[in-house]
Amino acid sequence: MRRSVARPLSAFAVALAATVAVPAAPLAAQEAAKVVLRAALVLDGAGKAWPNGTVTVENGRITAVGPLAAGASVTRDLGAVTLIPGMIDTHVHLTWYITSRGKLHVDNDGDGPIEGALAAAGNAWKTLEAGFTTVQSLGSPEDAQLRDAINRGVIRGPRLITTLGSLNERSGGPEALRDSVRAFKRRGADAIKLFASKSIRDGGTQTMTDAQLQAACAEGHAQGLRVVVHAHDASSVMAAVRAGCDQVEHGLFADDAARAAMTRAGTWYDPQCSLVFRNYLDHKPWFDGIGNYNAVGFAAMEKVVPEAPKQIARAAATPGLNLVFGTDAVAGAHGHNADELVCRGTEGKQPLDALLASVTSQAAASLGLAKETGTLAPGLAADVVALDGDPRKDPRAYQRVRFVMKGGAVVRDEPQLAARKSRG
Ligand SMILES: [Zn+2]
Questions:
Q1: Complete DSSP assignment for 24-65
Q2: pLDDT of residue 103
Q3: How many CA atoms, within 13 angstroms, populate the side-chain half-sphere of residue 405?
Q4: pTM of the shown model
Q5: Nearest Cα to 190, choosing from 241, 151, 242, 156?
Q6: Residues paired with 51 in a beta bridge
Q7: 375: Cβ–Cβ under 8 A, 6 or more apart, which residues?
Q8: 269 contacts: CB under 8 Å, gap ≥ 6
Q9: Cβ count within 10 A of residue 281
Q10: CATH 2.30.40.10 residue ranges in the chain?
Q11: What's the CA angle centered on 190, arms 185 and 196, to 5 degrees?
């Protein structure tokens, strides 16, 4: 989704730094201690499962995963829960928020950098509490300060990968696009976001030319950056694939040929099932009257609602297609990311083992982070989530997060509930 942002970055940075700091010492102490977590079921996110399993954590990293060993000293018995890797959402917009006046924040609406910073910090916290320890924001300039505040421990939030902004058909010819990609790299972008088609509210037809896409994706790769492309219709999806871009977002009107092209090229594909549409349609007053959020736009989204799960089902039934998890969480949707998993696993008919991989190990692979997170395995960051239930049997278990650890630090814990379940 697209929105213009023109607030001064320095003011935002100052405001973010001024928000309440989390003391560093207790966090550091927690990370240093050796912790052995036990749970009724451990799923590594890459296909392995251990009933009555343990995850051992030292210095913020996982050092062992497997069945409970005889004589092992469990330091934390989480009871009748399922441990999975910290979840990953490859498409969010953490700086989007609803103002105290009940409207989507836009430039010059009376909110200043402090409101923006607090809202972004709140969105990061809600997302982390929902079990998402890594997100990719596609993306606004303020993500840079948000990312740094999270990394410094000023606020708590998920590991943040960001494009810091986006490019589109109006960003100039191939040479200008190459310059812009290099400028994003200099500003600290982790990836590049392109808009190759109109929004769903405007028909979703191709906007960037093949030459523009080829220049932007080739330059991204030359700079060591992945390139993620917003593309709705089959023509724009195929153009992104031909240009060698890494990930297609949305692709709601992708056809058999477009899915075959993505499969052959190994392109990551992230079609949304429900959260982003329901968030707009169930809260129209938040958005109504802003940009293309009008009667025509809402009607276009209403039409998509029954079609979107069918697109998930067709993608899930395409052998070899790299279906990855992303919600396009915008203002109001942060912390509800798991609702999208429920849609994919029910109406979307995505097999539940594949769904788990798509939000953990496969999502990490799509971000180039497979050696850092996304799997419960020795050597990786201790990003661990406990669910009430087995997500391979019931995708609603993703909505019942009971415990969240990020990099060895416990950021959400509901011990009484786990203990009660364990007894009963
Ligand atoms: Zn988006």
A1: HHHHHHHHHS-EEEEEEEEE-SSS-EEEEEEEEEETTEEEEE
A2: 97
A3: 29
A4: 0.92
A5: 151
A6: 41
A7: 44, 45, 46, 85, 360, 361, 364
A8: 247, 248, 251, 254, 259, 262, 315, 321, 322, 323, 324
A9: 15
A10: 24-86+374-423
A11: 85
Report CA(29)–ligand 1 centroid distance (Å): 37
Q: How far is the CA of 230 from the centre of ligand 1 (A)?
A: 8
Kindly report, residue by residue over 240-272, the tens digit of the pLDDT: 999 999 999 999 999 999 999 999 999 999 999
Q: Sort 299 into a burial class: Cβ within 10 Å, 0-12 / 13-18 / 19+.
A: exposed
pLDDT of residue 203: 82
Ligand 1 centroid to 1 CA: how many Å? 4
**pLDDT at site 416:** 56
Positions of the chain with pLDDT lower than 50, given as ranges: 2-9, 19-31, 422-424
Q: Residue 20 has what pLDDT? A: 42
Q: 350 near 358, Cβ under 8 Å? A: yes
As annotated, the residues of the chain forming the CATH 3.20.20.140 domain(s) are: 87-366
Residues with Cβ < 8 Å from 369, sequence gap 6 or more? Answer: 88, 134, 161
CB 331 within 8 A of CB 104: yes
190 vs 367: CA distance, rounded Å: 10
Is the distance from CB of 192 to CB of 220 less than 8 angstroms? yes
Measured in Å, residue 175 CA sits from the centre of ligand 1 at 25
CA of 138 to the centre of ligand 1 (A): 6
CA of 41 to the centre of ligand 1 (A): 34
Q: Sign (positive/negative) of CA torsion 331, 335, 340, 342? A: negative
The CA-CA-CA angle for residues 226, 280, 7, to 5°, reads 60
Q: Nearest to residue 43, comparing CAs of 397, 414, 413, 399?
A: 397
CA distances from 239 to 23, 127, 210, 303 (A): 49, 33, 6, 25
Q: Note the CATH number of domain 87-366.
A: 3.20.20.140
CA–CA distance, 83 with 375 (Å, rounded to integer): 11
What is the 154 CA–ligand 1 centroid distance (Å)? 26
The CATH classification number of 24-86+374-423 equals 2.30.40.10
The C-alpha atoms of residue 28 and residue 296 are separated, in whole angstroms, by 52
Cα of 249 from ligand 1 centre, angstroms: 8
Ligand 1 center from residue 54 Cα (angstroms):
37
Q: Is 409 helix (H, G, I), strand (E, B) or coil?
A: strand
* Strand 401-406 versus strand 384-387 pairing type: antiparallel
